[in-house]
Design goal:
256 residues; mainly alpha; ANTAR domain-containing protein; 2 domains; two-stranded antiparallel ribbon
């Protein structure tokens, strides 16, 4: 309960800051969206504190932006993820309506927003950073995560996949879409299934993922720490979130 309260309180603070920023910039649509989520978060906080069972309050789809749906998905996964996984998680756990194609320009939009008003939003959807400190193709992260979680070393794709699988297993409650997502992820984890045709046990999937994670974690943590140190020393605020420009990127920008 304590962890859930802490998460809700942090989210409420983020949303309040976002509402204030949206009002200062006269962004009415964003302010309305954030206020709707703020009310939902505060309701969940009240219910948790009072010991009540929170009532599910379906949010009108029109009030939940693509940006916020991606944010929800990444928060659940807890690691850098590709758009198709974020879309699947949003659909399975939040009733999301986004499609992978709509995420193509999202990171560029976030970077433009940050450049025009640095830290004007409570969070940004940003790129994972490669060992060259350039943006990793097709991997999204959250600006609120420590830099060590936003860089990717040689073992990081596997580590992040296992981290995501654990998160999905821990949140899976038997819903059809969530169960199908877990089936797909379990196929890529040794020991996650018992060889039968039925859906895998979420506890078994999580334990198998943790077992493999223990094999890679030490090396990956060391690699990420080194990359994060380099990024801190070499990159400015924008590049730490969205990656350093590569030669190919510069050529494309020059050609425009």
């Amino acid at each position: 309960m304590s962890d859930r309260l802490d998460d809700l309180e942090r989210r409420i603070d983020e949303l309040r800051a976002g509402v204030r920023t949206a009002m200062r910039t006269k962004d009415g649509a964003t302010a309305r969206t954030l206020r709707a989520e703020l009310r939902s978060a505060e309701h969940a906080w009240d219910a948790l504190v009072s010991g009540e069972q929170p009532q599910a309050e379906p949010e009108p789809t029109g009030l939940v932006t693509v940006r916020e749906q991606v944010h929800q998905g990444l928060r659940l996964l807890g690691a850098a993820a590709q758009p198709r996984l974020i879309v699947a998680v949003s659909d399975a756990f939040f009733g999301g309506t986004i499609r992978s194609g709509r995420l193509t320009s999202l990171r560029r939009d976030e970077e433009r927003s940050f450049r025009s008003s640095p830290y004007g939003r409570p969070y940004y959807l940003c790129a994972a950073l490669t060992d060259r400190l350039s943006p990793a193709r097709g991997l999204l992260t959250l600006s609120t995560w420590p830099l060590e979680r936003r860089v990717v070393g040689p073992l990081s794709p596997r580590v992040d996949f296992l981290t995501c699988a654990i998160a999905v297993a821990e949140h899976e409650t038997g819903d059809g879409r969530a169960a199908r997502l877990l089936v797909r992820m379990a196929r890529n984890i040794p020991g996650a299934t018992d060889g039968t045709l039925g859906p895998p046990d979420p506890g078994r999937v999580a334990e198998a993922a943790r077992a493999e994670l223990r094999v890679h974690a030490e090396r990956d943590t060391r690699d990420r720490a080194e990359l994060a140190e380099r990024a801190t020393a070499q990159l400015g605020d924008v590049a730490r979130l969205f990656g350093a420009a590569t030669l190919s990127t510069i050529k494309k920008e020059t050609a425009k």
